[in-house]
Amino acid sequence: MIEVMAYSKEQGLQNDLSIEELSSGDWDWYWVDFNQPSEGEVTLLEKTFEFHPLAVEDCLHGLQRPKLDYYDDHSFIVVHSVNPQTLEREEIDVFLGECSLVTFHKEKNEPLEQAKKIVRNTKQHQDVDEYYVFHQILDKVVDHYFPIIYKIEDHINEIEDNTKDLSMERLLEELFDRRSELLTLRQTIHPMRDLLYRILNTRHLDGVFDRREYFADIHDHLIKVADMVASNREMTQDIRDSYLSLNSHETNRTMQILTVISVIFMPLTFIVGVYGMNFANMPELQTEYGYFVVWGLMIAVAVAMFIWFRNKGWFD
């Protein structure tokens, strides 16, 4: 599907134009969005708009890394948005020319839909141009990163507090899932940050220089998002280390208790073993109170060892 939006001082902002109407009109600027295009619609990129074949090839063979390429009469920019459900990267290809903007994407993209609403609802359309539209697209793409980060951050806080009273194994499993999601976001955000830095410092895009403070604001947002990803990854590492240390401590505590029990029963086992031998000549077996004496000896040894371990702090 192809959506066309164009503006002229005589006709104002026009929506839902056809390619033929766009070609026959005299427009101050226009935005053509190739939204999940068919094979026949894809051919218009090269035949009608005459974009460079290499740029068209990049559109068809995504996922490309976020980048900025220059051609004779247009610039080609690859932008990555993130699907909030799957966290998969979704490529948006932008052809930016003089008084024209063409976007190409193979999936329905929410940031682009929001950018369209903003452009349509802008009252001063005479102040709108292709760079204004381009700024809105980048701004909405970056804004959509924040809810995803906040959601992951909330999950990390739940894991840290263990509000669901999960087992250690389940907590670590969820923690590693969050770390994997943060890694996926970092692989998207860092290239986007580098792309905005290049856009801000290029001399080929005059409209960016005129709106430098707005594009710089997007770059600041990307820096903030990158810092949030790094901070949350550090938090997951700290939580992981804390859980592993706690697990190790509990294991050591269990081993300590088992060691105390084993050490207490060692002399008792020895005494029982001695008097359990089947020799005919064992004088203690003939005494009247030998059984009770041995029991008293074993209890005394057990109590003495228990007191000794307690004084050593093994039961603190």
Task: Explain what the structure shows.
The chain contains eleven helices and seven strands. Helix 7 runs parallel beside helix 10 and helix 8 runs antiparallel to helix 10. 60% of the residues lie in helices and 15% in strands. With 316 residues, it is of the alpha+beta class.
Provide a brief overview of the structure.
The chain is of the alpha+beta class and 316 residues long. It has eleven helices and seven strands. 60% of the residues lie in helices and 15% in strands.
The helix count comes to 11
Strand percentage lies at 5-15%
Query: What is the radius of gyration?
Result: 36 Å
Mean pLDDT: 87
Broad shape: rod-shaped
Order of helices and strands: EEHEHHHEEEEHHHHHHH
Helix/strand-derived category reads alpha+beta
- The rounded distance between the terminal residues' Cα atoms is 72 Å
Low-pLDDT parts are: none
Strand arrangement, largest sheet?
2-1-3-7-6-5-4
Query: Major beta sheet, specifics?
Result: 7 strands, mixed
Helix content: 55-70%
Q: Give the number of DSSP strands.
A: 7
